[in-house]
Description:
The structure is a single chain. The protein is of the alpha/beta class. A five-stranded parallel beta sheet has the order 3-2-1-4-5, sandwiched between helices. Strand 4 (107-112), helix 5 and strand 5 form a beta-alpha-beta unit. The longest helix is centred in the middle third of the chain and has 28 residues, at 51-78. Helix 4 packs parallel to helix 5. Helix content is 45%, strand content 23%.
Amino acid sequence: MKILLALDDHVRATEEALRMAREQxxxxxxxFVMDATWDVFTGHDWLSxxxxxxxxxxxxxxxxxxxxxxxATRYLDLAAGIPGGLVTARGDVVEExxxxxxxxxxxxxxxxxxxxxxxxxxxxxxxxxxxxxCDVLLVRA
Length: 141
């Protein structure tokens, strides 16, 4: 069995995925997607012609990198001895999660609500559950 864990700030989903992987002797891969859609979110309003928009996008890029490092460290500390690895991607969080899940995983585990990047303001769980190429386990955050 292959399990994919979509990482966000909620530890319960990570703990549940680790528990399942240990019990079933499954491979567990954790995916962290750095949200690259902040430029779309800010749109092309008055900020586009000034340094405020550029400064904001640089700030969000730095915040995404910090979040990735924190999530990776936390996951790797907890996942010692479990087969699998850590995958990082950059782009639309839902699209990247679905693309990774389509690479032969049997189960996708994620927190509900899923709070990764701009997905905290979108309905990522519904989109992922509807379009996932494998079973989805939602863990209450």
